[in-house]
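2.7 Reproducibility. Because tokenized structures are sensitive to small changes in the input, we list the exact sequence used for 3-deoxy-7-phosphoheptulonate synthase, including any N-terminal residues retained from the expression construct. No trimming or masking was applied before prediction.
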Amino acid sequence: QHHPDRSTVWVGPAGHQVPIGPGTFTLIAGPCAVETAEQTIETARMARSAGATILRGGAFKPRTSPYAFQGLGVAGLRILSSAREATGLPIVTEVVDARDVPVVAEHADMLQIGTRNMANFGLLQAVGEAGKPVLFKRGMTATIEEWLMAAEYIAQRGNLDVVLCERGIRTFEPATRNTLDISAVPVVQAASHLPVIVDPSHAAGRRDLVVPLSRAAIAVGADGVIVDVHPDPETALCDGPQALRGVELRELARAVRRLPPMV
Ligand code: PEP
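Resulting structure tokens (single pass, no recycling of outputs):
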């Protein structure tokens, strides 16, 4: 049972906007982290040629360890802008600090709020005022109700262009990094008008599960998926084990294309 007024969120510059919402299935792909201009532009080309319509890439990386690669920051945003110029793909990238919202909004077409910041209400209010659509990930220990209420902090500041993203939750099961709560998709679609997509890469933490979990997302009626891709995952500075290579990305894109039209 879907919410009666499901909305579509449009991402990108006027005239080149990409829809996320009912009746379509949006493939968002790109590197977990922006490492170099070459790696980012090569990945963006792989994404576009496979059929992705939005490029993802982290310039500010919130990592479990403060000693791990933290991203290139503003230099990474500039690389993302050049990848958009090279491919025409709009960009989604994470913002982790309210003070960085203006500079991220200057470069990005969509602002991502990561799992660790789902309940960072000051940050949510700041992105609510930034005038860009928001990709809003579920907190890894948040209930669906807490997630939807947190989305209200963005909406309350006048920004209704919010796409929810189920990215796995903490459970007792260690076989995957998180447990993809696939039932969150129809639960959210019944309770909220907002589009909902799935991140199988961060849910599983394992490349071999990304295509099967994407198929599950398609089957359950998600509005899209966001996946990590890297031209050479073995050398990736961030989350290499979950990054798709070109061949797996094309397999995923074929599964997406075989979709019956959804409403
Ligand atoms: C990401 O998408 O780059 C990311 C860090 O995801 P999450 O916040 O879901 O862990």
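The chain has a mean pLDDT of 95.
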